[in-house]
Amino acid sequence: xxxxxxxxxxxxxxxxxxxxxxxxxxxxxxxxxxxxxxxxxxxxxxxxxxxxxxxxxxxxxxxxxxxxxxxxxxxxxxxxxxxxxxxxxxxxxxxxxxxxxxxxxxxxxxxxxxxxxxxxxxxxxxxxxxxxxxxxxxxxxxxxxxxxxxxxxxxxxxxxxxxxxxxxxxxxxxxxxxxxxxxxxxxxxxxxxxxxxxxxxxxxxxxxxxxxxxxxxxxxxxxxxxxxxxxxxxxxxxxxxxxxxxxxxxxxxxxxxxxxxxxxxxxxxxxxxxxxxxxxxxxxxxxxxxxxxxxxxxxxxxxxxxxxxxxxxxxxxxxxxxxxxxxxxxxxxxxxxxxxxxxxxxxxxxxxxxxxxxxxxxxxxxxxxxxxxxxxxxxxxxxxxxxxxxxxxxxxxxxxxxxxxxxxxxxxxxxxxxxxxxxxxxxxxxxxxxxxxxxxxxxxxxxxxxxxxxxxxxxxxxxxxxxxxxxxxxxxxxxxxxxxxxxxxxxxxxxxxxxxxxxxxxxxxxxxxxxxxxxxxxxx
Length: 524
Known about the structure:
CATH topology of the largest domain: Growth Hormone, Chain: A
Helix content: over 70%
Number of domains: 2
CATH superfamily of the largest domain: MFS general substrate transporter like domains
Shape: globular
Distance between the termini: 25 Å
Radius of gyration: 24 Å
Number of strands: 0
Structural class: mainly alpha
CATH class of the largest domain: Mainly Alpha
Number of helices: 23
CATH architecture of the largest domain: Up-down Bundle
Largest sheet: none
Strand content: under 5%
């Protein structure tokens, strides 16, 4: 059952870490024209000449792309940090990155420096790279097996809430402006190159530095509250060898005294892994017994990002404009898409345990591939057939629903479930790196792809969705309501390897033999 300590630790770690990942993904979209204008003015003050359009575009694309690049660096820090500082310790240390970046971004305008914003985006990326991997690992290791999926989707839910919060606060009537108050609408259409906004618009009390600086608040809250909650029991028992602390942590999280079954299951997992020791990323790639698990997380993480979710969000504004939505209302449409995203991810929290992971992933990729295909058609025909622009709006909404129920939340849950304690940190490091590299690649390549192929770029996304879906259909097993050891046995059959290695392990640990047999017969 769900206990209060478990619910609180899920909410605190997801709000303090995952929320900010989402927030920083979309926070610079709304105030972009004002920030570019700030870059321009700062440069003019320093050099006496206006910035040329090409240089400004370069600076802006750096501001945007440094975030996923930082995310990649953050992912590479996962393995050493969670093994040395623990899961909870890593989250607490990670808050320092976010608070530092928030202070730098919030004061950047007073300090008249735009370089600091670009640097802060890297720091914020490192924070998000760690957060996006450590939170699912931490919560997955704490949850009982019947709630692991639901709690595993909570970080993704908070990512979508973060995106929505940034969209709402970024409305030009709130903080997405150059002062603390609303602007005449036509200013926000300012072009990235050259051009200034009128001087009277730019008071000292800018709205956007506040918008960027707000990201420090959830971190501060997490830094103050998370120390009162237990560390991951699996980490305490298997990696630290401290049964007493692990037992106390479990009793507190489960709300009852008798946690012997779970402790036994952890010991069993510990024994089955003793021989291999801690996996580094290199040994993960060369170890035959984890081959299909590794390929699966790489395919799922790449499929999640390369399925075009960023492209669809990027195109959304234009799709709505071509359907006749007023340009002044488009930001409200974006907010409503963000809200659909939150609602559908919330739905995933409630249905992932009843329907299972596989169904949600498959259904999600089916919806995404279908809407990409129909969207290509609709965008090509919208100038000739009047109602096609409405069909493309429907496609965008269906795509977002599809992505929110499966491809977005489930892969991180699956990494937690498909790997045992010794290989999990290395697996998250690989999965996280693939996630951020793919994210960075789409950000870099999509503009060129869109310029060259136009609406046909969605056919590439469609093909990637179909390929990922077929892989999941044939290879990825259902993992709901199974212990980590049971899932490990299913994957061992697929790897055609671990069962005889398992026998050797059992021979070297005679006391493990009986339990192995018992578990095997029960899981069969």
